[in-house]
Amino acid sequence: MDTMRDLAARVDAMAQSFAARVPLAVLDHAMWRAAERFPGFRTETIEDEVREALAAGRVTIDRGPLGLHPKSDPTCLYVWTADGDRIYAMRVDALAPDGFAIITTMRRRDR
In a 3-state reduction of DSSP, which class is residue 97? Predict the structure, then answer.
């Protein structure tokens, strides 16, 4: 019989595996907004930041707790960096039918 610790370790391993393999497409809009909102940010790291967030379980459908306008888009998932500075919206899209398209880059309203 698995303990809760064993189950948690299995879930963590599945998240790591999923994050490493899920197809991601970074849309131009996400890169433009990242460059606009975070001067000097290297937009080629967006995919890495999204994979890291997925692996760490930093994903939600609710925008409000992230310091964004509370009206959520029901078609989007939101992931954020470990420091909470950048938030990415992503959804299933024709450009990533078996994964996610990263559609925009946002900053918390309180920063």
Answer: strand
The structural domains of the chain, ordered by start, are 4-107 (3.30.2310)
Sign of the dihedral through C-alpha 18, 60, 33, 41: negative
Q: What is the pLDDT of residues 21-39, one digit of tens each?
A: 888 999 999 999 999 999 9
pTM of this structure: 0.82
DSSP alpha helix (H) spans, 27-105: 28-37, 46-56
Cα gap 111→107, rounded to integer Å: 7
Strands, DSSP E only, in the chain?
24-26, 59-60, 77-80, 86-93, 96-107
Distances (CA, A) of 96 to 27, 29, 85, 108: 10, 15, 25, 26
Cβ-based burial of 64 (10 A; exposed 0-12, middle 13-18, buried ≥19) = exposed
